[in-house]
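Milestone 3.1: sequence recovery, worked example.
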C-alpha cells in the first residue's frame, strides 16, 4: 500500500478546512484526458462533502505524452502566486483542448491577473522547480500515472467515478 510522501503541508494548494476529517490528494496533469474526466467527479465530491473534505492538488505533468502539461502547471502556479490558483485550475481542466501559451495568457486575462507578471513568470519558468518538487514527491509516493489519488495519506486505487469516489471518501470520514 503506497503512502503519501511527504504529507500535506502549507506548501500545498489546499481547499477546505485543514482540520477536515478527510483529505483527498490528487496528483494530476492538466492535459491528461483521464484527469479531465475525473475533474467533475472531484468537484462533485468537494461540493457534496463540504467542510468535511480538504482537497489538495499536486502536479504530475506527463511531459512525454502531454507536451503542454508542464507549461499549464506553470500557468497554474503563476496564477497561484497572484492568489488565483483554484480559478486557473478549473479553467485549465475546463479547456484542456486549448493549452498553448497564447491560451494560457488569455486565461490569465480572464482571471484579471497581472498579465505582464504572468507572462514573465511563464517565459522564465519561474515556477518550474515547485512543479518538479511535486513530481519528486509523486515518485516517492508511488505515482506512475494520472490521476492518482490519496485519501488520508493512503493511495486510493478504486474507481474515481462519482459514486465510487464519494463512497470511499465518506468511508474514510466515518
Amino acid at each position: 500500500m503506497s503512502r503519501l510522501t511527504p504529507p500535506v503541508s502549507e506548501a500545498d494548494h489546499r481547499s477546505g478546512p485543514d482540520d477536515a476529517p478527510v483529505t483527498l490528494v490528487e496528483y494530476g496533469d492538466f492535459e491528461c484526458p483521464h484527469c479531465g474526466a475525473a475533474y467533475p467527479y472531484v468537484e462533485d465530491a468537494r461540493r457534496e462533502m463540504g467542510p468535511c473534505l480538504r482537497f489538495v492538488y499536486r502536479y504530475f505533468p506527463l511531459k512525454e505524452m502531454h507536451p503542454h502539461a508542464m507549461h499549464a502547471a506553470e500557468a497554474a502556479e503563476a496564477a497561484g502566486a497572484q492568489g488565483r490558483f483554484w480559478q486557473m485550475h478549473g479553467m485549465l481542466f475546463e479547456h484542456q483542448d486549448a493549452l498553448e501559451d497564447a491560451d494560457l495568457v488569455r486565461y490569465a486575462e480572464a482571471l484579471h491577473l497581472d498579465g505582464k507578471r504572468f507572462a514573465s513568470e511563464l517565459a522564465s519558468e519561474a515556477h518550474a522547480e515547485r512543479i518538479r518538487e511535486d513530481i519528486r514527491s509523486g515518485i516517492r509516493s508511488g505515482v506512475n500515472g494520472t490521476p492518482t489519488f490519496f485519501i488520508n495519506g493512503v493511495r486510493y486505487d478504486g474507481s474515481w467515478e462519482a459514486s465510487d469516489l464519494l463512497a470511499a471518501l465518506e468511508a474514510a470520514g466515518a
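Strands lie at 13-15, 22-28, 53-59, 148-151, 154-156. The two ends are 21 Å apart (CA to CA).
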